[in-house]
Design a protein that fits this description.
single chain, alpha/beta, 13 helices, 9 strands, 39% helix, 14% strand
């Protein structure tokens, strides 16, 4: 895990927005997010998840000392921990949650480090993380106490091997941890209202059964995702979605993240997701600067990226909100 030399410039960016925007619905603001937010702490000793391809699982069993470092290089999409991402201005977190059967990892270090049973929940992106879900969420809760006018959106998705009881326990933990800080989906969230009510957390939960049982949870947030390693194709995909479909009525995410395929990995043995992303970020940020938030069909809302702390990504996204001031002045 890499620790950033974080500037606190964006740590309180929501509270520093002009007063004219305090009554704007959060889904009409430009909000920076991180794709696979927890991948900064992937475990190189972790087995490949059963949700990955059969071939990759087979190779992992055959030659884990080769496969796992390779998976780690491509599955790692962030370099900064959660507090650093928050300080940098990130307010949307892509949290992919998995049940980790510790007894079956055959990792002695795991067994020594934890007193938890084998139902411990971790995050995952092809392999498991070192940090548990409870550890990460409690860290966020501490940060929010120190920044009481900042609102975060936590997207819980891509659940792997969770039982119904584990889902229920997770939701119970979330509601007990954040309590009155949770913003329910029955309301249109805007900053001044959230501040008045002390609400700082929006939880999106991608499981229909659980969603219907808990009124405090928001439905899945649409994520526009190009599934390409070519930044030009990513931009083209997002623009086509804007024109053909238009923005969602409420929250939605435009993903700037690149995606490797087998050909890219095999043909570029020295390449990593970090190198691929950093080579492309100039082009991707140029596209971001041309966007406008707001209610219009071609507007943006949440914009997600990889390695969000290693460039000015968050500042560029936050800066888009200035365009709303021009819109308001002409109404």
């Amino acid at each position: 895990m890499e620790r950033g030399d974080v500037s606190s410039t964006n740590a309180d960016w929501m509270s520093q927005l002009p007063e004219e925007l305090w009554g704007t619905p959060l889904w009409d603001l430009a909000i920076p997010g991180s794709h696979d937010s927890m991948s900064y702490c992937l475990d190189t000793h972790s087995p490949v998840l059963g949700s990955e391809s059969v071939m990759l699982q087979f190779l992992d069993r055959l030659a884990p000392c080769i496969v796992r470092p390779c998976v780690y290089r491509w599955a790692t999409t962030q370099a900064w921990c959660i507090p650093d991402q928050l300080d940098a201005g990130i307010r949307f977190f892509d949290l992919r949650i998995a049940h980790k059967n510790i007894k079956n990892t055959h990792n002695t270090q795991d067994l020594l480090k934890t007193h938890n049973t084998d139902d411990t929940l971790y995050f995952a992106h092809a392999i498991y993380t070192l940090q548990t879900v409870k550890e990460a969420l409690s860290t966020m809760a501490v940060w929010l106490k120190q920044h009481q006018k900042e609102v975060v959106i936590l997207s819980c998705s891509h659940f792997y091997l969770l039982t119904d009881s584990e889902h229920q326990a997770l939701v119970c933990y979330i509601t007990q941890l954040f309590k009155d800080k949770l913003c329910p989906p029955q309301e249109t969230p805007y900053l001044s209202q959230c501040w008045d009510l002390g609400q700082q957390v929006i939880i999106s939960y991608d499981d229909e059964t659980i969603l219907h049982q808990h009124k405090e949870l928001w439905p899945k947030i649409p994520y526009w995702y190009a599934d390409s390693a070519d930044p030009k194709e990513v931009i083209s995909y997002l623009e086509e979605r804007q024109k053909a479909q238009g923005r969602a009525a409420h929250f939605f995410t435009s993903g700037l993240n690149l995606t490797e395929d087998t050909t890219v990995v095999v043909c570029n043995p020295c390449l990593t997701m970090r190198k691929l992303t950093m080579k492309s970020f100039s082009l991707l940020l140029d596209w971001v600067e041309k966007q406008t938030p707001g209610p219009d069909q071609t507007a943006v809302n949440i914009i997600c990226g990889d390695f969000v702390g290693l460039n000015h990504f968050a500042s560029v996204v936050i800066g888009l909100n200035k365009k709303l001031l021009k819109t308001e002045s002409h109404r």
